[in-house]
Amino acid sequence: MLERQKSRFNNYIMNKKDNIKASSNGGVSGPFINRNDYILFIVFISVLGSFSSLVNDMYLPTIPAMMKEFHTTPSMTQLGISATMLGLGIGSVLWGSLSDRFGRKRILMISLVVFIIGTAVSMASKSIHFFILCRLFQGVGAGGSMVLSYSIPTDRYGGRQLAVIMSVVGALNGFVPAAAPLAGGFMADEFGWRGIFLVLLAIGVIMLVWTTRRPESLPQSRRLKSADIRSFLSAYGVLFRNGRFMLYVFAKSIAIGLLFSYISSAPFIVQTHYGLSAAHFGILIGANSLALVIGSMLVSKLRSVKRSLLFGGAVMCCSAIAESVLLWIDCGLIGYEIAIVPMLFGSGMVFSTSNALSMEEGRSDAGSASAILNVTKYIFAAVVIPLVGLGDIMRSTGIVFTVIALISGALFIRICFLKPLSEMQKDE
User: What would the 3-class secondary structure string for 260-285 be?
Assistant: First the structure.
């Protein structure tokens, strides 16, 4: 216990020294930055963190049309999302580990190049199998943006300040699931899925150029001293043995699994079953996603990050079970919406709080901690996504929602007994 407190104190002092040094070099850091730098930093991190939503949510309205173009089944089409999730997980481990040794900026640029190539090649797909393969590589590239969107803020901030930044970024990221299906819905009829992927390609190029103009966030003194596999495995071993860290990781992962179960099933439920057009589907899903924004924003207003996590988890689990019942008895579109909105609200709270709590626990190896956080959630998402497409989509989705809610409930009960981190409490 004494060693852990000593380690936290040393990390705090090191962060303060790096903040002062970064400030003198014009970098982004703690209380020493100006307002414009802070806003640009938040926007930059938010765009990086939104890559997961961009590569999946934006083309959601085109999934039924893609199924017809490639002459395949709903479950096979949904494997395009699963392949991206798998790629995001692989990319998180790869880029997160390498960034702890070689710095964030260089690794982020390489991952963006992979994303750009994967996106460009995918537009030439003539079969669903080639498209799924391209989506895998697209996900590997996007994984760098996702994992570093957690590592870079952790390099600069800690404690309650990190929680506030995560909640702001989470709220801004919530607009992407809201705007992406909306934009994709309007683009689907005019340009199809290839037009949407062209937009993704442009976003990748813009972020690559922007990254070249950003400062490095991880000083040489805080990087892994060796690039051998034993150093990476040692860092992962310490984190995997940290029960507190892993509980927060699983909390985020299960919530992500629930979100992507909803995302992957929504096009077939809303468009195919209830008959909405691609444009109307985009509007509906976009409006629903605003609940994520509100949930994320609320976290910064509450005193305890842990209590925020538990409250959000309770709302998410209860709403998911209610939604399962409504899907099973098919209460219509309005019935479908009644429980989805609070479920997403609770999920938004879980996302922001579990991000902050897990990264605070793993800040000494932020790249590896972020990699574990990302790969775990994407593995879980990749597993549950095809399950909602098996058999009757309404009932299979309801069953998946129920199972996830029960697992989440057991996990949140365990988290109840953890002592809150003092640095994650808001001062009175």
Answer: HHHHHHHHHHHHHHCCCCHHHHHHHH
